[in-house]
Amino acid sequence: QRGLWNADAWSPDLYPSDRGHLFMSAEELCKRNCRSSEMRRAYALSEEEFCRAEAELELAVSLGLIGQAGFDALEQRRLQKNEENRRKKAAGEVFYGPCSFTRPMYLQYELTRFRLEFALPSKKVRDSGYCPEITEAQKRTFYQENQDLLTRAQGDLFSYEEIEAVIEKRLREAAYDRLVQDILCQSETRE
């Protein structure tokens, strides 16, 4: 497992210790695709959203969820998924989701899938070395510090046992966001 400097999922210094050679800098990510403005338009993204999507695609490669990052590889996966859905529909097979994904739909589908794979980690994600172990102490601290977020509509507080899985998911989502942010900020860290 790749080492983490601090496995506290709620702290700001949850970064892979070997980050210097795994991720590209944010600048490299944003410049890698010479057609970035064309791609941004095709996917209906602002420049900031485009850079974040590229960072999430890079993280997905490091997590072992996809083989290649970049929007050209994303487009190939989209076309394959659309063809797979077309074949299933023609064969009368049941499948979930749209018959055909547009570019923005498929990007959102993949980014959501990556986040969920990290928040509810599969063995592949756990084995990547980037998925922190969430301790009982971290979950209880979150519960104590965020009780305003953990109430029912009537105002009464969920018990810790009722909400423990939700807390762990929230902590993992925060860790995921910090890893993405680390990719985006890496060029500044090197300077």
Let me know the average pLDDT.
83
N-to-C order of helices and strands: HHHHHHHHH
Global geometry: globular
* Helix amount: 55-70%
How would you describe what is shown here?
Helix content is 62%, strand content 0%. By secondary structure, the protein is an all-alpha fold. The chain is built from 9 helices and no strands. It has helices at 19-22, 26-32, 36-42, 47-62, 71-91, 103-119, 123-127, 136-145, 160-190.
Offer a few descriptive terms.
disordered N terminus; 191 residues; mainly alpha; single chain
In short:
With 191 residues, the chain is an all-alpha fold.
SSE inventory with pairings:
Layout: H1 19-22, H2 26-32, H3 36-42, H4 47-62, H5 71-91, H6 103-119, H7 123-127, H8 136-145, H9 160-190
Helix pairs in contact: 2-9, 4-9, 6-9, 8-9
